[in-house]
């Protein structure tokens, strides 16, 4: 287990769901991991340390310029460099143009889109030996979805920013790709059900209608992120990897 031996990685939104599973997998593969989240990531750090890995938690808001600078500085000062950045923190508002407020629209854009730009602004210069950046898009960044206008706009932006970043930073030896999950069993999905006042059973039925007949697990998304983060994907950049059990197909 040494895909990321001697590498330093940042995972945003690493206190929960996909980010948490990825932080644990990165650490198991040898990376020292900085876990940045609004929520307390102390428990994930303790789990990683109990397994013999290295991690540190940073309480931070990825929509804040000063917080993003501090996240990257923590990686460099604590672990001596930076090689992998997983821009994964995100939020969803299940609303249409008719009911989303301007403040909510701006919040979704700030957390999902501005964060990717800000984290890259500070991370790229810190990746002095080259590196890999993985951004979490969504199936809804590649096709439309109902009742989630701001989210769909934000994730389409993430997918295309990924391509633009890949072009801009290829010469510096930095690859940039997006991972695009379908429905994945995380607290976010439960929150969506709550926002829509829908029965959880309706979500499970939706997933059952897809080709593979189920939603994904955070660990299944993390495995794809690890592929993009490590040398196994050394000729892959600017791509949008779909991990959705065939949903988009
Ligand atoms: P989650 O809610 O379990 O985890 C998201 C984490 O991001 C939380 O720990 C939260 O505290 C953190 N976060 C939110 N705003 C933040 C901010 N401003 N600064 C720092 N941290 C912040 O959700 P998840 O399902 O693991 O989602 C992870 C990513 O995957 C998101 O970008 C989401 O849009 C994307 N995604 C999820 C699904 C799904 O079905 N779960 C599908 C497609 C894409």
Name the structural class: alpha/beta
String of helices and strands: EHEHEHEHEHEHHHE
Q: In total, how many beta strands?
A: 7
Report how far the terminal alpha carbons are from each other. 32 Å
Outline, from the CA principal axes? globular
Strand arrangement across the biggest beta sheet: 3-2-1-4-5-6-7
Give the count of helical stretches: 8
Q: Supply Rg.
A: 17 Å
Per CATH, the superfamily is NAD(P)-binding Rossmann-like Domain
Bound small molecules, by name, code or SMILES, are:
nicotinamide-adenine-dinucleotide
Strand content range: 15-25%
Enumerate the spans where pLDDT stays under 50 for 5 or more consecutive residues. none
Largest sheet: 7 strands, parallel
CATH class type: Alpha Beta
As for the CATH topology, it is: Rossmann fold
- Percent of residues in helices comes to 40-55%
Q: From the 3D coordinates, which CATH architecture would you assign?
A: 3-Layer(aba) Sandwich
The figure for the number of domains is: 1
GO molecular function, one term: oxidoreductase activity, acting on the CH-OH group of donors, NAD or NADP as acceptor
Family: Belongs to the short-chain dehydrogenases/reductases (SDR) family.
InterPro entries: KR_dom, NAD(P)-bd_dom_sf, Sc_DH/Rdtase_CS, SDR_fam
Pfam family, one: adh_short_C2
Report what the structure shows:
This protein has helices at 17-28, 42-50, 65-79, 102-126, 149-169, 187-195, 200-208, 218-229; strands spanning 8-12, 32-37, 54-59, 84-87, 131-136, 174-181, 240-243. It has a seven-stranded parallel beta sheet, sandwiched between helices. Helix 1 (17-28) packs across helix 8 and helix 3 packs parallel to helix 4. It is globular and about 45 Å long. It is built from eight helices and seven strands; from the N terminus they run βαβαβαβαβαβαααβ. Helix 5 (149-169) links the parallel strand 5 (131-136) and strand 6 (174-181). By secondary structure, the protein is α/β, with parallel strands linked by helices. The protein has a single domain (8-243), classed as Rossmann fold (3-Layer(aba) Sandwich), CATH 3.40.50. 45% of the residues lie in helices and 16% in strands. Nicotinamide-adenine-dinucleotide binds next to helix 1 and helix 6.
């Amino acid at each position: 287990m040494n895909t990321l031996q001697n590498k330093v990685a940042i995972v945003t939104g690493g206190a929960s769901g996909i980010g948490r599973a990825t932080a644990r997998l990165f650490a198991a593969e040898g990376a020292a991991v900085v876990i940045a989240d609004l929520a307390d990531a102390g428990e994930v750090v303790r789990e990683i340390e109990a397994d013999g890995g290295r991690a540190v938690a940073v309480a931070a808001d990825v929509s804040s310029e000063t917080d993003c600078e501090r996240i990257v500085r923590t990686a460099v000062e604590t672990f001596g460099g930076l090689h992998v950045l997983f821009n994964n923190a995100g939020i969803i508002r299940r609303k249409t143009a008719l009911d989303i407020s301007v403040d909510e629209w701006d919040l979704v854009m700030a957390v999902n889109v501005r964060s990717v730009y800000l984290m890259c602004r500070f991370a790229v210069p810190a990746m002095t030996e080259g590196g890999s950046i993985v951004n979490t898009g969504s199936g809804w960044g590649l096709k439309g979805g109902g009742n989630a206008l701001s989210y769909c706009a934000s994730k389409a932006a993430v997918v295309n920013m990924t391509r633009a970043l890949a072009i801009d930073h290829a010469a510096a030896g930095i690859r940039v790709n997006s991972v695009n999950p379908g429905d994945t069993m995380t607290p976010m999905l439960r929150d969506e059900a709550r926002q829509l006042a829908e029965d959880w059973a309706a979500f499970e039925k939706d997933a059952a209608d897809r080709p593979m007949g189920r939603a994904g697990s955070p660990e299944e998304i993390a495995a794809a992120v690890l592929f993009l983060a490590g040398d196994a994907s050394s000729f892959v950049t600017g791509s949008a990897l779909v991990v959705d059990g065939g949903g988009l197909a």
